[in-house]
Amino acid sequence: NAEHYALQYVDGRQTYITESNRGDIKNGSILQLTTSPDQEAERLYSGIQSNNSDVKTDSLKKLASLSQDVTFAQEFINRNGLKQIFYIVEEGNDIGEMLAHTLKAFMELMEHDFVSWETLSAAFIKKIVSYVNMSVVDASIQQLSLSILENMVPTSRLLFELVKKEVTLDRLLAHLQVTNVQLQLKAMALLTALLLAATDAERRDMMEYLRGKNIRQFIHKNIIHSSEPLGDEMAHYLYVLQSVSLNLCERRMRTSMDPYSQEQRDLLQSLRQTAFESESETAASSFSTERRRSLCAKEFRKLGFMNNSNPAEDLRRAPPGLLALDNMVYFSRHTPNAYSRFVLENSSREDKHECPFARSSIQLTLILCEILHIGEPCSETAQAFYPMFFGQDHFFEELFCICIQLVNKTWKEMRATQEDFDKVLQVVREQITRTLSLKPTSLELFKIRVNALNYSEILKLRQTERLHQEETLAVPVLELRERLKPELLELVRQQRLLHLCEGTLFRKISSRRRQDKLWYCRLSPNHKVLHYGDVEEGVHSPPIESLPEKIPIVDMKMLLVGKECPHTKEKSSGKQNKDVLELAFSIVYDMEEYCLNFIAPTRYEFCLWTDGLNVLLGKEMTSERTQTDLDVLLSMELKLRLLDLENISIPDAPPPIPKAPSNLNFCYDFS
User: Are residues 269 and 411 part of one domain?
Assistant: First the structure.
């Protein structure tokens, strides 16, 4: 009676067994006989319309758990069950257990994507919003309501605008401040969904508003440093929040400097004035325009601009565009002492050894944008946020201030000249990324660690990493490796055939049950015949004479493994053990009429036997074991061959062969 009854898993998600998923039943799963999904859907459909509140609540509870199953959900939705759920929410005034079950059932039914979110009525959405905005309502209802809204927001612009208007940011911030972790999580999910669905201008306004409400300090204190460990989901939302915040810099990063904008020119001049104010202004007042212009050019050169007569040209490259200018101005205004020290120290160094401030700043800004993925869309799964990001206002600018001083420090350590500019910044990039990977909790800690990781430390780290790779990656070593391969493969082949000559004990598997009948198979010493036969328990290596059956190797046609074997096909009625499939192989022989079927005792034996039989058939050895054995032998052989070359660098190209001597009349006198 398929229309009345069905099978269903007892444990976990109680999924119904259907034609499409019956192949997934695992051996050992417990099933129960139950009413069929369409009967159950019919019963619950009438149950949730009952006037008796107990019956109604029970039906909704059952509905919430069964709706996870796709077969049931389809049946229920086909009966227009969602309309009934809408009715309960829109018309009901209950805010207790019944409502929680209703919303849970609704969420589960929507998960299956049979129905679009855009079909929801305004009245239903208003009701859901009201649960979020109510103060006295059960936390589980608020969680579900926030979850429903979070799923609605990305689906259409209309729903986004509706939710954004009805659920204020203040309300979401209030939900973030509760002690209930789940509620906090759902509020955070809705907040990030709103931010991601917003346009650039809306996002900027929302972030500005949140900044005014000190959300950063709150997250840093109550979420990152709370007593509860941070879950993966919350880590992802914090990553999104960090990513959205940093991407607010994208607009400035992609805008090149406009030499005709007075505001931008003033910013440039302020850099020069802050550095050289006292010495130049007094003298410059009496100079002619021409003289003053050459003085400015000289000062811009000291600041490290490549194009000193028109420094705006240096900032035409976008990215980093105006973001580099913003960073330089921030550094000069917020840490004027460090700024003056940097510029004056380098303008008084002997030629070629000065570190150019402006050029370094522009390149460093670009490096930071790449490391922090500014201007890249949010990943949907990443959880890599920096705890120190939430511990600091103006994070990007403050990070720049630390790193630009690091550039100067590294420059001195490397005793660099202008030609080494790219090298220095490569080292600085490495110092920053290595320090960020340690996830420092504050910028202060970042500063201490990044300064401790000086140039000599970087060299040591590079050296050890290179040693790990060098041996195996140099061109001559790779050539040697290729040359050694055939010889070592032959060694592996010999080992496989020797193993077949020793033979192995196999078990017989019958269709009724696993019987402990044993049989033995081995290869004759001349590699011409396979001998096999039944043996008693306890016999370990029977002599060849005691094995009655044999197959000449010349009659062997092919080797089958796994699902292709006849003895696994017979029993593939859903009960077939996966581990048996991994260990099964068969030999087809005698005009492809007969098969000898094996179930190897272990994966190791399976690899050795399939390799050995492939060698006998003249084919490649294909098991995973071949590769690992070959790698072990190769690395041992290479290490032995390279022992004499300790600390000698191997050139990529062979040295030239010297010319032949002018005469060959020389010999060694052995007397």
Answer: yes
pLDDT in tens, 476-492: 788 888 999 999 999 99
- Residues in the chain, how many? 671
Q: Please give the backbone phi and psi of residue 137, each rounded to the nearest 5 degrees, phi first.
A: -155, 150
Using DSSP, state whether 85 is helix, strand or coil. helix
Position 155, amino acid: T
Q: Are 95 and 137 in contact (CB under 8 A)?
A: yes
Residue 635: inside a domain, yes or no?
no
Q: Are residues 120 and 263 in the same domain?
A: no
Do 574 and 528 have their domain in common?
A: yes
Cis status, amide bond into 319, omega within 30 of 0:
yes
DSSP 575: -
Indicate whether 654 pLDDT > 60.
Answer: yes
Residue ranges making up the domain that contains 435 = 254-278+286-466
Residues 23 and 133 in one domain: yes
* pLDDT per position as a tens digit, 150-181: 888 888 888 888 888 888 888 888 888 888 88
Other beta carbons within 10 angstroms of residue 96's beta carbon come to: 12
Give the mean model confidence (pLDDT) for residues 187-196.
91
* pLDDT tens by residue, 561-616: 888 888 777 655 444 466 678 888 999 988 777 888 888 888 899 999 999 999 99
Number of domains within the chain? 3
- Note whether residue 31 is domain-resident: yes
As beta bridge partners, residue 585 has: 561, 598
Beta bridge pairs of residue 531: 522, 550
